[in-house]
């Protein structure tokens, strides 16, 4: 029979069919084997197609929103300070897939992308950049002070390192209330020099607070490299002084960021206390809109652009045949429309009224302000 099969494919097919219970089982056998062959040619990943699609569309939205913000700033539609997140999108996207809706985020002044990722609409964020009453902080905060209690986003802080202590306070509140929520407290490599960090690390470890401290190390703080400002070049090692678990993460990889945050946040939920994650990333633009970024070479910037997290995620989608050209175009169009609508919303929104000036400053509604 083996010789007959080798000599005649038709005979082999008859043999296979005769030994199957029915045609459906045989077709299932063929399909299963084809799937195995296809799997061998795919990019191996533990994450699903849906996760990659989510990362891609969210990161693209964050990139296009920030690009538009930069353009509008140049047109003087947006005033004051403005710090763009371009290049760092993998952190925001992967933080979302590694956390639960009830978890709280708090960050510094480079806050637009994390706010949108956490659920604040692009319309509310753009309106806040314009200083309009429909903004997420009623037009009173501007670029550096996005806020939404509803979405668990607690800023947006202009004072370097101030959010580190507040982040631990949020974690204490979750612990006190007995929730299973945790806090992601983001700060930059420049803020790692602040005394607030050390005081907070000590207290957070003492009380085993459910907080993940995330240093978004983009290497240059406001414009000075880590090498020129710190004897400790691996920032995650600062945790050693407090016996705090810590790790260094590739911030250009959504997969690595997700896994790192997931490990840390699970530890926090299980009463294991805080973790310090140094997520090494890169901003393609200057520290703020006024920064020409002459302290780094063009070659270095181009090197990091070759590791653009948006491109890396899209490559995985394409190689796995999880997306086609039409679907890519559809995502691009959705993102384009959402950003355009956010600008239209901001342009057409009203300015805050004069009676808003002294509101939202103190809890006490009748606080005796001196207004003369």
TrEMBL record:
The Dehydrogenase E1 component domain, residue ranges: 59-352
Keyword Endoplasmic reticulum part of the UniProt annotation: no
Tell me any Pfam family this protein matches: E1_dh
Q: Which CDD domains match?
A: TPP_E1_PDC_ADC_BCADC (cd02000)
Protein role: The pyruvate dehydrogenase complex catalyzes the overall conversion of pyruvate to acetyl-CoA and CO(2).
User: What are the GO BP annotations of this UniProt entry?
Assistant: pyruvate decarboxylation to acetyl-CoA
Q: What class of enzyme is it?
A: oxidoreductase
Q: What EC identifiers does the entry list?
A: 1.2.4.1
Task: Supply the gene name.
Answer: pdhA
UniProt-recorded name of the protein: Pyruvate dehydrogenase E1 component subunit alpha
Which keywords accompany this UniProt record? Oxidoreductase, Pyruvate, Thiamine pyrophosphate
**Which cofactors does this protein require?**
thiamine diphosphate
Which PANTHER family does the entry mention?
A: PYRUVATE DEHYDROGENASE E1 COMPONENT SUBUNIT ALPHA, PYRUVATE DEHYDROGENASE E1 COMPONENT, ALPHA SUBUNIT BACTERIAL AND ORGANELLAR
**Reactions performed catalytically:** N(6)-[(R)-lipoyl]-L-lysyl-[protein] + pyruvate + H(+) = N(6)-[(R)-S(8)-acetyldihydrolipoyl]-L-lysyl-[protein] + CO2
**Gene Ontology MF annotations:** pyruvate dehydrogenase (acetyl-transferring) activity
Q: Spell out the subunit comment.
A: Heterodimer of an alpha and a beta chain.
